[in-house]
Amino acid sequence: TIKPKEYPSEEAIDALFTSLEDVVASHKVYSSEQVKEALSLIEEALHMAPSKFFQTGKFSTLKQAFIVLSTSHCSSGLMVKQKTEFLAMDKNLKEVPHRVAKATQDKALLSDKESVKLTLTRDLELSTFSNKARQS
Q1: What's the pTM?
Q2: How many helices (H) and strands (E) are present in the chain, helices listed first?
Q3: Quick check: helix, strand or coil at residue 34?
Q4: CA dihedral sign of residues 33, 39, 42, 44
Q5: How does DSSP classify residue 78?
Q6: Residue in 6, 61, 59 with CA at minimum distance from that of residue 34
Q7: Do 97 and 60 contact (CB within 8 A), yes or no?
Q8: What DSSP line would sit under 80-117, residue for residue?
């Protein structure tokens, strides 16, 4: 027999049910249509350069696509290996904004260096032309 003081308190039971409700609410089940849309979006991203895809403004929807595909309830057809690959791709995509910023910075630096190179080349050609003109 259970003694009265071994029963959980009403607060403990309420806390348990509240936490269970939170867990159930956090496990969203996605429809097969949402899974197909997520797969097509990821497919589109795979066929584009990361910087180009980032510029399309679909980055946040791509993150949502990975969330859909990484949930255990989204599709029984997704194998563990595929889910692992999706999570790895999601991790790589989180680095895209930093990589785009770095590439943009490198491109600007390269443009500056190219400009200096052209200026020096032009000055050198003018100096060479002036020296040849003076010598003749």
Answers
A1: 0.35
A2: 6, 0
A3: helix
A4: negative
A5: S
A6: 61
A7: no
A8: HHHHHHHHHHHHHHHTHHHHHHHHHHHHHHHHHHHHHH
DSSP for residue 76: T
> What is the CA 59 to chain-centroid distance, rounded?
6
Q: What angle do CA 60, 45, 92 make, to 5 degrees?
A: 70
Which one-letter DSSP state was computed for residue 71?
S
Cα distances from 122 to residues 19, 48, 84, 110, 126, in angstroms, run: 73, 39, 55, 18, 6
**Tens digits of residue pLDDT in 91-128:** 777 777 788 888 889 999 999 999 999 999 999 999 99
Q: What DSSP line would sit under 3-19, residue for residue?
A: -GGGSPPHHHHHHHHHH
CB-CB contact of 67 with 87 (8 Å): no
> Residues, the chain, total?
136
pLDDT computed for residue 70 by the predictor: 66
Say how far residue 88 (Cα) sits from the centre of its chain. Answer: 10
Directed axis angle between helix 32-46 and helix 80-94, to 10°? 50
Do residues 87 and 66 make contact, with C-beta atoms less than 8 angstroms apart?
yes
- SS3 of residue 1 by DSSP: coil
